[in-house]
Design a protein that fits this description.
The protein is an all-alpha fold. The protein has a single domain, classed as NCX, central ion-binding region (A middle domain of Talin 1, Up-down Bundle). The chain is 81% helix and 2% strand. The strands form two sheets. It has a two-stranded antiparallel sheet with strand order 1-4. Strands 2-3 form a two-stranded antiparallel sheet. α3 packs across α8, α4 packs antiparallel against α13 and α8 packs antiparallel against α9.
Length: 330
């Protein structure tokens, strides 16, 4: 009976995230029009960071717990790193594939290196740092600093052309920008709280399962914490804003390993399970390169979306079959 109650709480929390995401997407798009920002840029920055709040909170809370309880260093490191990378792989493969099936996913070739190249680059940097079995405070600081530099690059080079700005300026926006900013902050606050509750109740459901900490992070917390990206991306597609959707997914896949994991490592350092270095991160990097190749001709085709989803299912099966336990590299 208690487990049924926990499951219901997960559903209720998800519904709250859905409602808050609707307000967030509307306010963000109004701000994009008012300030002449492209849909892609608003997705890559404001929405990507906002929808990554569950991952950011998971890392901060987990790292604070590690500082207070040294015995939790290894299991909590595996849990939060698994959640981070699991969320990214779910977004890269399943959600991006879903976006391709539901809409027309197009990225200009000139933006590929900036967007998908940034995704692959962030994954490779984390892979290099994790090779020795730890992500240190210094490496966490580098990840966070690298993310700040990336945001500066987007701010400088991610604005739309003069013609697009004039077109946007002709679109009537009746709300005050301060009001939209407050709506956006409130929506993300609600999303963060609801997603945090969803993750907490989900954890209760798996307490008795004989699974490794990193696998629980990948399959449960990773998917649960990607729920805001899922809802916000689908809402963007429904409203015909596919560039917002891909901006959210790609931007979140840069935000998670650099800002969220970087902040956590900066607080406590992390021990990295061998499976993350030997399987998870190589899969994340390989599928990122595949997405880059798919988009080289301009858009992600539906059969490629199906292939990405199939690869995600295969990834989960192989991980559960061949990596049932966490073995630390150090």
């Amino acid at each position: 009976m208690a487990l049924i109650a926990e499951f219901l709480w997960v559903i209720v929390s998800g519904a709250v995230v859905l409602g808050a995401a609707e307000f967030a997407i509307q306010a963000a798009l109004r701000l994009a029009l008012r300030f002449g920002m492209s849909d892609e840029l608003i997705g890559m920055t404001v929405l990507a960071i906002g929808t990554s709040i569950p991952e950011i909170m998971t890392h901060i809370m987990g790292s604070v717990t590690i500082l207070g309880d040294k015995a939790s260093y290894i299991p909590l490191s595996g849990l939060v790193i698994g959640a981070n990378i699991g969320s990214d792989i779910f977004q890269q493969n399943f959600l991006l594939g879903l976006v391709a099936l539901l809409g027309v996913l197009v990225v200009a070739r000139k933006d590929l290196f900036k967007d998908v190249g940034g995704l692959v680059g962030a994954s490779c940097l984390l892979f290099i740092f994790a090779l020795d079995g730890t992500v240190s405070r210094a490496e966490g600081a580098i990840l966070v600093f690298g993310y700040i530099v990336y945001l500066w690059y987007l701010k400088r080079y991610g604005l739309v052309s003069a013609d697009e700005k004039r077109s946007a300026s002709r679109t009537k926006v009746v709300t005050h920008p301060l009001a939209d900013a407050m709506i956006l902050i409130a929506a993300f606050t609600v999303m963060a709280f609801a997603a945090d509750r969803m993750i907490a109740h989900s954890e209760v459901l798996v307490d008795a399962l004989p699974l490794s900490a990193s696998f629980i992070g990948v399959i449960l917390l990773g998917v649960a914490s990607a729920f805001p990206e899922l809802i916000t991306s689908i809402l963007a597609i429904v409203k015909g804003r596919t560039t917002v959707s891909i901006g959210i997914l790609v931007g979140s896949n840069i935000t998670n390993p650099m800002l969220a994991l970087g902040l956590g490592a900066l607080i406590s350092t992390y021990a990295v399970p061998a499976v993350v270095v030997e399987y998870d991160l190589p899969i994340k990097i390989a599928t990122g390169i595949a997405i880059f190749a798919f988009l080289w001709r301009g858009r992600l085709r539906k059969w490629q979306g199906v292939l990405l989803i199939a690869l995600y299912i295969a990834y989960l099966f192989m991980r559960m079959r061949f990596f049932p336990a966490d073995i630390m590299l150090v």
